[in-house]
Design goal:
Length: 434
């Protein structure tokens, strides 16, 4: 992605590819911002002004978000030479103080208490050119400080890269913290964990609906692997499919009206289509020898990727959303599962077994396979970010299972969760307002 950012002739941002263009006595520099983990933009993120009690929490969240993105290198606070009396707005500080320490971008923030609410603001500057890129202000109850910090991090991402950040999203996952596999959701940075199921049973494979206010999942609560939907706003859970045999891998269609899932209505597991509200059967989509499972919708709702053993071992196939002839898209390796269709529509992530389990992506025509992980424990359950730029997955590389995020090319990888582990089956939400 390219942005035209005015920088002074000192050209401090040498980590970037620069092309000088003369205009009105200054130098305009074409900055080629690389992929996450490629060209880290040196950014100064000084401690917020205002002195509110939520300041440290706010600053920690913004910093963590920017680090997760892989686009930024946050400069040390100890390098700052700016006086404590400097302000946030243009004219209230000196750009030379930040050029000296090598900052290409400066993000100044403020956090102020106002009764029971907190007000935050962010001012984003191009240091070399000495110009403002963007500014925004937000307010919310004190309990919403983390959410405001995520929004501020998004503003910084947009101002610098032109792309919306993923910081206003959440991850649903299975947690095994109490001896039972329960469904949880958390902020994308690994904090704000909220338990959704508390039935003391085995709960698996949570999947967001496109509105981001409900989760489909499979539970053994009633003694059979049935499909349930949790309404996150109302705090209600209902069983959508309790047919004999397995009812698993439920995936909402892009319009939220249908659920594709795996049922064992016959001798084999096949993929069916249900009404998302009533659970009534709409259609049977597969009817071939061998197991068919793990459906994943294309972003336009016209196709479904799935796993099938019709050719021998499990491989990734794609078929029309109405069923019909399927075509194979994975050709390397004898065991490929867990497809996840990118929101961009161009690639499918999946898990392949190559001694251990790793995450790969492939174009939807079966060409251009790329490897995301290799030689780092078992890596499973891939799920794309809403913009298709990142993949979340579970990994045992640090011991117990934790959730990691990788850029779509695997160059940037970072562990999201911490503690004792037990995190599996992550699924990335759409952008959320709650």
């Amino acid at each position: 992605m390219k942005r035209l950012i005015p920088l002074c002739v000192s050209m401090l941002a040498l980590a970037w590819t620069l092309t000088g263009l003369a205009e009105e006595g200054r130098t305009l520099v074409e900055v080629q911002i690389g992929k996450p983990g490629d060209r880290a933009v040196p950014i100064a993120l000084p401690t917020p002004k205002g002195g509110a009690s939520q300041t440290q929490e706010f600053w920690d969240v913004v910093r963590r978000d920017l680090e997760l993105s892989g686009y930024f290198r946050i400069l040390s606070q100890e390098a700052s030479i700016e006086p404590a009396t400097a302000g946030l707005r243009p004219g209230e500080f000196q750009f030379s103080d930040w050029r000296t320490v090598g900052a290409a971008v400066l993000a100044k923030t403020g956090v102020v208490s106002s009764g029971s609410d907190v007000r935050t603001e962010v001012w984003i500057y191009d240091v070399g050119g000495g110009e403002k890129l963007a500014s925004r202000a937000f307010s919310a109850p004190a309990a919403g400080t983390r959410g405001m910090a995520h929004r501020v991090a998004n503003e910084i991402m947009i101002a610098v890269t032109g792309e919306r950040g993923f910081f206003d999203t959440r991850l649903a996952f299975v947690g095994n913290f109490s001896g039972n596999k329960e469904i949880y959701v958390m902020d994308v940075d690994g904090y704000g964990r909220r338990q959704i199921t508390k039935n003391g049973s085995i709960n698996l494979k949570p999947r967001w609906n496109p509105a981001g206010n409900a989760l489909a999942f499979t539970s053994y609560f009633a003694g059979n692997p049935d499909l349930y939907v949790a309404d996150l706003g109302k705090g209600q859970i209902k069983r959508v499919s309790g047919r004999a045999g397995i009812n698993t891998s439920g995936a909402f269609s892009p319009d939220g009206t249908r659920i594709a899932l795996t049922l064992t209505m016959g001798s084999d597991a096949d993929i069916y289509l249900l009404d998302a509200n009533s659970g009534s059967q709409i259609a049977r989509l597969t009817n071939s020898p061998g197991i068919d499972t793990s459906p994943s919708w294309s972003p336009d709702g016209s196709q479904i990727a799935f796993v099938s053993e019709r050719g021998g071992g499990p491989q990734i196939y794609v078929m029309p959303a109405s069923g019909g002839e399927a075509r194979r898209v994975s050709f390397q390796g004898g065991h490929n599962t867990d497809p996840s269709w990118s929101p961009k529509g161009d690639r499918i992530a999946f898990v392949g077994r190559d001694g251990r389990f790793d995450v790969f992506t492939v174009r939807t025509d079966g060409t251009g396979m790329e490897r995301i992980t290799q030689g780092q424990g078992d890596n499973e359950d891939p799920s794309w970010s809403p913009d298709g730029g990142y993949v979340a997955f579970s990994s045992t590389r640090s011991g117990a299972a934790h959730i990691w995020i990788a850029s779509s090319d695997g160059r940037h990888q970072v562990q999201v969760t911490s503690g004792g582990g037990g995190y599996t089956n992550p699924h990335w939400s759409p952008h959320l307002s709650w």
